[in-house]
Recover the amino acids of this structure.
């Protein structure tokens, strides 16, 4: 099944309106990305700010419980974090840096999405007095995982 079809199915299941436009930009305003977060999550809001600063055009959907969004999107339980996004037919889970999302959209690997499990200090939206190393994990619908990018 093509990623664009998977995206449309996930979007429909999650109640996201899907426009007929399929290009990666709309009027040159940036790459659209659908973000699901809880209304009170401060680090999620900071991650959205990171996306905006990096040229993405986020549409934020606030929901009190994201369990069903993550399940429908196929995010493995061990990779779940505080927010979930959809872009270009991929799922982006957690504090994934914008440059890794651009790499994903450019390389177009045969994966369901990428994730940063947990909330590592120093990742976008989790800035602090240090930067902990962490991996960005690619995952498939079949349950396979692999390291897609490393941050040290």
């Amino acid at each position: 099944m093509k990623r664009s079809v998977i995206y449309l199915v996930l979007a429909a299941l999650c109640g996201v309106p899907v426009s007929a436009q399929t290009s990666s930009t709309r009027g040159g305003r940036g790459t659209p990305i659908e973000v699901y977060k809880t209304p009170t999550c401060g680090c999620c809001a900071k991650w959205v700010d990171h996306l905006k600063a990096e040229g993405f055009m986020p549409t934020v959907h606030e929901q009190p419980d994201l369990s069903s969004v993550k399940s429908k999107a196929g995010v493995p339980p061990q990779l779940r974090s505080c927010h979930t996004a959809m872009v270009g037919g991929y799922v982006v889970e957690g504090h994934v840096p914008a440059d890794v999302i651009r790499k994903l959209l450019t390389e177009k690997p045969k994966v369901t999405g990428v994730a940063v499990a947990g909330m590592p200090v120093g990742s976008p939206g989790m800035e602090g007095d240090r930067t902990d190393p962490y991996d960005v994990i690619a995952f498939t619908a079949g349950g396979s995982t692999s390291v897609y990018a490393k941050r040290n």
